[in-house]
From TrEMBL:
Gene Ontology molecular function terms on file: carbonate dehydratase activity; zinc ion binding
Top-level EC class: lyase
Catalytic function, reaction form: hydrogencarbonate + H(+) = CO2 + H2O
Name of the protein in question: Carbonic anhydrase
Classification lineage: Bacteria, Pseudomonadati, Pseudomonadota, Alphaproteobacteria, Sphingomonadales
E.C. numbers: 4.2.1.1
Length: 223
């Protein structure tokens, strides 16, 4: 804990004074552009990964970056999605999985989770992805099967998202876009789902056209 407390002190001493006007603006409300639903894994740090600033992202984290299909039962993930889309009017939702995911390892071996009954039950929302991999991944190596599971889980959770009323309405009116990502921790690469081809591409390829303006500005700033 001393490490984290010291970090707060450094923030107050070295960061906040130089950005006080920015934080004054943030103190009056938020208008994030995107909702990110990602894993609780401690190695996933979205601010670093996306180079986003405070206020840019509304974040939901849970084991396995899972979205339960909509139902009459209320849960934290469901409530956060409803708030992000219905109240904050985010224009993008990203479901972001990652390599070496302990949740997905647990999903393929639920018999080993007897001592973690809530985790085992939660990972039931990834069951369809597990069964897809079992059906089509027989000729793959263990590593390839796990990557396929990460991808299929992201695709499955995107399908679950569409069952949420606020999401369905926003999609129908064209005010919302959905995205599926898989972050390769070791390589520092992020792969984004391309629905047209049914496969994942590096973000640099998937969003090449959309990024031109931002990359040009970045090159100008560092030129």
């Amino acid at each position: 804990m001393p490490k984290f407390a010291a970090g707060v002190v450094r923030f107050q001493r070295d960061v906040y004074p130089h950005k006080q006007e920015f934080y004054d603006t943030l103190s009056t409300g938020q208008a994030p552009e995107a909702l990110f639903i990602t894993c609780s894994d401690s190695r996933i740090e979205l601010g670093t990964l996306t180079q986003a600033q405070p206020g840019d992202l509304f974040v939901v984290r849970n084991a396995g970056n899972i979205v339960p299909p909509h139902s009459n039962s209320t849960g934290a993930t469901t409530a956060a999605i409803e708030f992000a889309v219905g109240a904050l009017k985010v224009s993008h939702i990203v479901i972001c999985g990652h390599t070496d995911c302990g949740a997905m390892k647990g999903a393929v071996a639920p018999d080993k989770l007897d001592s973690l009954p809530h985790v085992r039950a939660w990972l039931g929302y990834a069951r369809a992805a597990v069964e897809i991999v079992a059906a089509i991944g027989n000729d793959l190596t263990d590593q390839e099967r796990m990557l396929l599971l990460l991808e299929q889980n992201v695709i499955l959770q995107l399908q679950h998202l569409k069952t949420h009323p606020t999401v369905a309405v926003a999609l129908a009116t064209g005010s919302l876009q959905l995205h599926g990502w898989v972050y390769d921790i070791k390589a520092g690469e992020v792969y984004a789902y391309d629905e047209e081809i049914g496969d994942f591409k590096p973000v640099s390829e998937r969003y090449a056209e959309q990024m031109k303006e931002f990359l040009s500005a970045d090159l100008h700033d560092h030129g």
